Amino acid sequence: MNKRAALLLATVSAASAFGLCGCMGSSGGGTTTSSASAAAPSSSSSAASSSSEVETLKTSTVGGQTIVVDGDGKTVYFYTVDHAGETKSACTGGCATLWPAVTSASAPTLQGVTGKIGSITTADGKQQVTVNGMPIYYYAKDTSPGQVNGQGVAGVWYVLGADGSMIQAPINAGSPSMSGTNGY
């Protein structure tokens, strides 16, 4: 194996390890916004997950569960290492690459979502959307609307219910292209 192939393999292996381990990070700093109307301009933290900010959060039924997705149908997740009301995400570094923050220039329009919307400031100054005080994320391995590959990853990543609750039950999206409910 040449050096370039070995480096590529090492990079892919490291990225996969982040997904399996849950990507533990640290907490602290930032600003919490508790009202749905206050959020500053920002853009998505990862081009792999979204090329623009979320404008709408809505509900969708996947595998018999009503979950929260963005306006394009892309699933959003909670990270159980985060805690409601904290002012900074616990998902940093490589974790934030695999689990990019859902950001918004202003409070997203809600369609069927009853959880309380707010925001916190990310390390790079963007406004990460929160639901019931918990930051929300995309999963880079969800490449199409309706995928839930991040559900249950490492026992710390879960989809959101319409009321902002965490859904921990396995979700089978019923698509033959799915790699399983745990995304590995």
Automatic annotation (TrEMBL):
Residues 1-17 form the signal peptide. It comes from the Bacteria. It comes from Sinomonas terrae. This is Lipoprotein. Keywords: Signal. InterPro entries: Lipoprotein_repeat (IPR005297). PROSITE patterns: PROKAR_LIPOPROTEIN. Residues 34-53 are annotated as: Disordered. Pfam families: Lipoprotein_15. The keyword Iron does not apply. Residues 34-52 have a biased composition (Low complexity).
